[in-house]
Fold:
Amino acid sequence: MSDFKILTTEIRNGIAVVTIKRPEALNALNSLFFEEMDRLVEQLSQDPEIRVMVITGEGKAFVAGADIAEMVSKTALEGTAFGRRGQQTFRSLELLPFPVIAAINGFALGGGLELAMACDFRIASVKAKFGQPEVNLGLTPGYAGTQRLPRLVGLGNALFLLTTAEMIDAREALRIGLVQKVVEHEELIDESMRLAMLIVQKGSQAVKKVKLLTRKALETDLETGSLLESDHFGSLFGENSEGEEGMKAFLEKRKPKW
Ligand code: CO8
Structure:
């Protein structure tokens, strides 16, 4: 990760803090970003020490969208490939076995909001601004924004944002459920780290399973999802299991030793 030009990663207490650093272009997503993000996701997914990832942007943007300068000359075929590539990157980010928190420091527009939506939950600075402005450019979203937005905020809110390209502030994003918390700008990283630390202190297998099962809820029917839940629930019981230690610790009025 030391040779990365756009993404910097700092690992502390099992938390990987990833910062997107291309502030001169408001962190717009170019091919190099996707190359680096693919490599980063691959590396972090294989690191057993990592329990949570926090992703943020440097400067006044989280990410102001896909890089328009790089996209403008693409042919239809190239456009499809560029979109598909980004979709796959965001999908592998979403499928990381541990929770990923978006700490949204400023503009999260177009591909930037799509990136934030591929994270597990979103904490916003009061300075954050959100939008899907693709129709202003005669485009649709290309990184699954039309798919994730209605799942997160419902059809009406999604179509409102997608068809009007209206930019909304952090309070409105909170109201419609696009973000889970809004904090003072200076508190964004501290609060995201505090939440990440809460997760680090839980049973790591339980957290992984909760992520997997909850994401499955949107992709499967209730009966299938419930059966899957029972299997995972059961797998946390038994001698020397995480569940056994967690429950014993509760009964013995002590902290679990995981
Ligand atoms: N791409 C490339 N460069 C950008 C982008 C972008 N998305 N956004 C900002 N920049 C650049 C500007 O061109 C400017 O560069 P320069 O200094 O060289 O002129 C620099 O960043 C600073 O930007 P501004 O001067 O515009 O800053 P302001 O504070 O005045 O405005 C805004 C901030 C409102 C965020 C404004 O920059 C803006 O509207 N940006 C574009 C937002 C946008 O339309 N985003 C959606 C892009 S499309 C998209 O994301 C589709 C995703 C799916 C793609 C699928 C692939 C096929």
